[in-house]
Amino acid sequence: MRISRSGRLAACTATALATGMLMAGTASATGLPKPVTPTPRVTADERVGGHLPAGKPKAATQQKQRLAAGANAAAGSAWNLFDVDGDGADDILYRGLSGTSYLKASGSTEADITYDVWKTDTAEDFKDVIPVGDLDHNGRPDLLRLTVTGRLSLSEAGTSGTGYPAWTGGGWNIYNKVFGAGDLTGDGNADLLARTNDGQLYLYPGTGKAGYDVPFGNRVLLGAGWGAFTQLIGGADYNGDGKTDVVATTAAGVMYFYKGTGSAAAPFGDSVQTGTGWNGFNQIVPLNDSNGQGLVLARTVSGQTYLYAADASGVLGNRFEFSKGWQVSDLISGQGGIPAHGKSSLWGRTGAGTLFTYHTNGDGTFAPRTQISDDAGWPVSEVDVLLTSSLTTTSAADMLYRYQGDLYDGDYLLGGGWGIYNAFAGVGDLTGDGYGDLLARDKSNVLWLYPGKGGNGQGFGNRVKLGAGWGIYNKLIGAGDVTGDGRADLLARGTDGALWAYPGTGTAAAPFGDRVKIGGSGWNGFGKLTAAGDINGDGRTDLVGVDSAGVAYVYSATGEKGLNTFKGRTTLGGGWNTYAELL
């Protein structure tokens, strides 16, 4: 977990807001609290264990035949999704919780090397990194990166990092899942699949080009209903017929196999149920060995990984233990689940006003706390602290605070007049532009949306009225996606103790769908309740609540709906009454 010190000293250009809250420059008030000092994760090494099977280096004549085949190659011959060392077996690219990327090369018994994924903006954290194979048949794999603002960029991948982004395209934030498919259409070119938030699946056929050329053709709708799956992977041949297939799992853990046909008109057949119990894994990842066999790497919440091989029916049955310790990876290239962005952190403020942070371990637990403020530096009676899901392209929580009616972003004054509000929630991106937004409820119980402007501390756009009647709730909560569709959601606790979800729509005019009851009465038993973001690696937001005895519990989102939104709680232990509030 990383904490972003909001307080980026950029010029604030917004004009007067609807309520007369004027945006200002540098802070002029006296007696402001001293800004917090974020602490880095304390970790000896984020390199994960396990040795991938070695590939079989191809003879020079075989390599020439492979490159010459191009568009005349047989269906499924896009070969590998991510083979950077050219041995015919896929390698694995993953990112640690600290933000460093590593490469696990097939056949290597050495420690994984750091891997440089090119960024045009050093402050940016990619939402996803997508292996797509060798698009232009030059013997080197290509890699796509997806930003939170929906820009997809393509680079060639080498043995130590990627090249400068060549082709780029915008508008990809309409999808919650984009993944490499191998050659689905039978023309020998690697293709791409993309699923919208409402479950429509599209095929982007490969053109056989890369670099600055357009790598994919016009999209083709394959069908609806794909929102039923929490994980989707493609780009590997699982039944051994030489054609690439698609594998999908539901929130309930049921796995389905879609057999590739090699036909552009209908690239795969009907689904076949091939297993259950896959909800025990928070990520599954496709791999190809040098024999053309598709494998699946599966990770549990505790970080244990397994490799699965399939039989001739595409059933993943035989497995062997790969390695422990994979919970420290917050993104595995090609992973099946929707990647998280924005917040995976927990802050506590004591009654005396001292702030502490808890770094996530990636397995649903937290490391020991770290003090990030002066003793009693943030008095509860004087300063309101808001920990929001990321307001920028950095995947880290942002700290705002209200002091004497003024709102600050670190040591930068955003504006005055914020004393009219009695509740805030920084749930993430509600407008669909990729930047986190802010919700505020005024003392007349009207809820307002402040669209985030991104950039570096540039504040918010003009507020949007969402409606009245929000006084029926005593707590507004949110930090990302709870429902599993890739959109940020708002949770609200009623005065009767019931818990409700307002699913995000991705539009500023009407950012929420109809509310859904996700918890019965009893949630008032938590004096402190907050959304900590994704803390167990599945991409969904989890809740932390503290009861009257000071015992803290984690409620992990399941990807299911209604009263099944959260599964049984796990405990973090006692002593949490030392905090006046959790953020």
Task: Note down, in words, how this protein is organized.
The chain has 583 residues and is mostly beta strands. The chain is built from 1 helix and 41 strands. Strands 1, 25, 26, 27 and 28 form a 5-stranded mixed β-sheet that branches. The chain has a 4-stranded antiparallel β-sheet with strand order 4-3-2-21, with no helix packed on it. Strand 27 and strand 28 (412-415) form a beta hairpin. It is globular and about 65 Å long.
Which key terms come to mind for this protein?
583 residues; mainly beta; 5-stranded mixed sheet; 4-stranded antiparallel sheet; 1 helix; 41 strands; globular; disordered N terminus
What are the SSEs and their pairings?
Layout: E1 3-4, H1 60-69, E2 92-96, E3 101-104, E4 113-114, E5 128-133, E6 142-146, E7 152-156, E8 168-169, E9 175-182, E10 191-196, E11 201-204, E12 220-223, E13 229-236, E14 245-250, E15 255-260, E16 268-275, E17 281-288, E18 294-300, E19 305-310, E20 316-323, E21 329-332, E22 345-350, E23 355-359, E24 370-371, E25 383-388, E26 397-403, E27 406-409, E28 412-415, E29 421-428, E30 437-442, E31 447-450, E32 464-467, E33 473-477, E34 490-494, E35 499-502, E36 516-519, E37 526-533, E38 542-547, E39 552-555, E40 570-573, E41 579-582
